[in-house]
Design a protein that fits this description.
Helix content: 40-55%
Number of domains: 4
Number of helices: 20
Oligomer: single chain
CATH class of the largest domain: Alpha Beta
Strand content: 15-25%
Shape: elongated
CATH topology of the largest domain: Alpha-Beta Plaits
Distance between the termini: 64 Å
Number of strands: 16
Length: 548
């Protein structure tokens, strides 16, 4: 960044209106930045200044007591004010020596005008200069940001963005990918770069352990300031970009670093999308596996090569993730493919993080995942899968347009890839029962009696069983518009607790008692006997299955 973007006390003194000004003390602080000019004629100003202001005064607030003047200077210096400019004449003929000494002690610029000046002219002139400088800053930032975006469309997008960041800020740039070698722009001597990279990596590990997510990070390194910004998307950080500055960072530095990391993230995201699309193309055979179109393991070996033995020995779960088709512009019929690949980009690293090897394919608006457990202990697979899906749902919900629902069904674990079709069917059945359980992640082994009912393929038999057990209630509800069937289910599901059932149904106890009496009248007074109760609970589940 050009130095013109930073206005210092020395710069202000070069303005024509300061031709008669004289620096009495604190010349060592003339490089202090000036963000604004403020006229101050009161002694109690602690809440009136923010820091980096040039203060103009006639001295009226401390004219009568040199000690007040000394305190005035010391408090301004403590609040990081840029300098103090005093107009001599009307209230103060000379600056007390004690004030000059205090200013010199703190290297706080103390400037005087020997005669009367128009403060309004000074503020107008300097404020116009500051505003124009900010405007130039924004114009330069917009130009560089457009160039960043253009560079991401080149084959070496990230590298080119880093080079432009260096030339635009005149700072040392370090690129730290989460996997791979760090790169310095420009390249540093090997030892010097190694020390800097080790410092950055150690600092990032510490900050991540502290769960500090206020970016950019500020680090001090060998009397220099380092600002670090992450580059990533989909809830993952893929790299860090660091700028090493010999000066204090300015607003321009923060903005241009943010723009650069955003462009790098877009470049990395596009490359990962292409890689994911390639993996999908290479794994089209997974659909044949799930639909039992592969006859034997020899066919599997021809697709998987040397990985077959290792993966075939692991236990697997087939997971189905149902998603909404993408609303982004895409070729006709490709909406689900786009959304599916986007989702698999998020899911793949999550599975790897929890020791699963994923084989992923896309079927309409469903992502099909064969999650093979590579954990050494091979225990707690279900818990780890739940953690994966919790993270997936959280990441999906936090995306700007990620409000669409995700429903997840998981089959039982099996060993051997040829058993994947069984787990696949179980995952489908788990998804089918979402309306019964209203859980976003449903494992087949949590379905209870539904696991048995799914294997009764004769729907006529199921309907006859439901009719024999629940027929009077179904008929009553249809004719009278009642809710006896739902009342019975809630009542039985909560261990026949009248208090809990009334709360869940949002009715008063008296209404519940009336409904239970009606149920007893229709089903018989012994409907709560062990055998009858069990039959009713199975019939209720069968009724749900028939009506999903």
């Amino acid at each position: 960044m050009d130095s013109a973007f930073i206005l210092t006390v020395q710069d202000v003194l070069q303005r024509p209106l300061f031709a008669q000004a004289c620096v009495l003390a604190g010349e060592g602080g003339l490089n202090r930045q000036v963000r604004w000019i403020h006229i101050l004629e009161v002694s109690h100003f602690d809440k009136l200044v923010h820091g980096e202001e040039m203060i103009l005064t006639t001295g009226i607030s401390f004219q009568s007591d040199p000690a007040v003047g000394v305190s005035y200077v010391e408090r301004l210096a403590a609040q990081n004010v840029s300098c103090l400019v005093i107009e001599l004449g009307a209230y103060l003929n000379a600056v007390p020596e004690a004030m000059i000494e205090a200013a010199e002690k703190h290297q706080f610029p103390l400037i005087i005008f020997p005669g009367s000046v128009r403060f309004v002219d000074i503020t107008q002139d300097v404020h116009s200069f500051i505003i124009n400088s900010h405007h130039k800053t924004l114009q330069e930032l917009e130009r560089v940001s457009r160039e960043f975006h253009r560079l991401t469309l080149t084959s070496q997008g990230t590298s080119n963005v880093l080079k432009l960041l260096h030339t635009s800020t005149k700072s040392q740039v370090i690129y730290l990918p989460t996997t791979g070698q760090a790169v310095g722009i420009p390249a540093l001597p090997k030892t010097k770069q190694s020390l800097l990279v080790e410092f950055l990596q150690a600092s990032l590990r510490r900050l991540e352990a502290e769960e500090t997510d206020r970016f950019p990070y500020h680090l001090d390194y060998e009397e220099q300031t380092v600002i670090v910004q992450p580059a990533g998307a989909l809830g993952k950080t893929w790299a860090y970009v660091a700028m090493v500055l010999a000066r204090r960072p300015q607003e321009y530095d923060y903005l241009i670093l943010d723009s650069a990391t955003l462009s790098i993230a877009q470049d990395l995201l596009r490359k990962r999308y292409i890689d994911e699309q390639k993996l999908y193309t290479e794994n089209l055979w997974v659909d044949d596996l799930l639909h039992s179109r592969l006859k034997d393991e020899e066919q599997l070996k021809s697709f998987m090569g040397t990985e077959f033995k290792r993966l075939n020995e692991g236990s697997l779960h087939v997971c189905l993730i149902e998603f909404e088709p993408s609303q982004e512009p895409a070729e006709e019929g490709q909406e689900s493919m786009t959304a599916g690949i986007h989702l698999s980009m998020v899911l793949r690293p999550l599975l790897a993080q929890h020791s699963f090897y994923p084989l992923i394919t896309i079927k309409n608006n469903r992502l099909v995942v064969v999650a093979i457990d590579l954990s050494v202990k091979r225990s707690g697979a279900k818990t780890r899968l739940q953690q994966v899906f919790d993270s997936l749902l959280l990441t999906h919900a936090s995306e700007p347009f990620g409000g669409e629902r995700l429903l997840i069904g998981v089959g039982i674990a099996y060993t051997g890839l040829m058993n994947a079709p069984v787990s696949y069917q179980e995952a489908i059945q788990a998804l089918v029962l979402y309306t019964c359980f209203e859980k976003k992640v449903l494992f087949f082994d949590e379905l209870g009696v539904f696991q048995l009912l799914f294997h009764i393929h004769d729907r006529t038999m199921l309907q006859a069983f439901v009719g024999s057990q629940l027929g009077p209630l179904i008929e009553y509800d249809q004719n009278k518009g009642g809710e006896l069937l739902r009342t019975l289910q809630v009542y039985l599901d909560h261990d026949a607790s009248k208090q809990v059932a009334a709360q869940k149904l949002f009715i008063v106890r008296q209404t519940l008692y009336y409904r239970l009496d009606k149920i007893a009248e229709l089903l018989g007074e012994d409907y709560m006997s062990p055998d009858k109760r069990l039959a009713l609970q199975v019939a209720l589940r069968a009724y749900q299955l028939l009506n999903v």
